[in-house]
Amino acid sequence: MNSEIKTGLILGIIIAAGLGILGTIFSTLDQEPQPSTAFIEINSTSIIDKSGFKKAPQLVGIADYLNTTPQKLQKIMKDKVILYDIWTYSCINCIRTLPYIIAWDDKYSDQGLLIIGIHSPEFEFEKNSENVKMAIEKHGIKYPVVMDNDMETWKAFENRYWPRKYIADHEGYLRYDHIGEGRYQETEKVIQKLLEERSKSLGLEVSAYSLVDIKEFEHTLFRTPELYFGYKFAQNRNQLGSEEGFQPDKTIAYSEPDKIDLHKFYPIGEWKNNEDSMELVSEKGIIKLLYNAKEVNIVTENSAELEIFLDGIPLSEKYSGNDVMDKNTLHVSDAGLYNIIDSESSESHVLEINVKGKGFQIFTFTFG
Fold it and tell me: What gap in Å lies between CA 42 and CA 64, rounded to an integer?
């Protein structure tokens, strides 16, 4: 084999290897963030060297304190195992974790667990303390919630995701970190282990508990991704199917589409393009979407009447979401998340929402 052929083969191998590596990198970037692992051996009884652990950062830049005061919170944090829950009230993934967090608060608060909800908003309306108060009352949250409106505590934790749970031991060392939903039994076992450590350290009696038994939401493997209506939030996402496209800060007359593609939304009527939403300028408007999921939610602001159709037929009770109380019509007023479709299994449908209400804003579709 001559040198030219050898050189060509070597170059071909190098190029193929390089393409393989790049493919792996790009496929990794497209994946959902993976849950973090525990920084604790749950069944370990050995002495723990904490020199490699970080301390939990201070709560900084807090705009408001709900279910507590700054002074009271500072006092009750001493010697507690603390679960920091970074969330925001219009995030469906955050909401699905709340039953577990509330159950842990009920079960372990007398044993030395303190839960602190760090409310870090995604949208402007989530910075309103009255909106957050209504949300914590709706979900029955009794533990302290701090409003991190400028995301300063979010940054102090070096966080990038909703929801995210950090657990610090009674000496303030971060011992657990989990991104997203799921792994509830694992999380609770960490809580129990850290409470056991605390009890032994403080000379208290150690209590034994079974785990909370709550049915976990079952995600479908193939579902439409979250769709953003704000031009800033939708950057680098090909989600608006209308040929008019996004036109920042302009009011656009969107026309009826000739066809509808899967995983894309189509506004019809006059809509203003805002950074984080689309706002209905005309008295009436329409939103169309071909989706695949078993659950569909919308995040909205301002009052409107939404008439909902699936495949051209008024929404039936079989698919009706928890917030649709009047046949196929949903009345929205409070800024936040509404469940409009809830079915037993993942299916594909053309969703049409006829909107009556000038000033109505829509921020996202989310799916389950």
Answer: 35
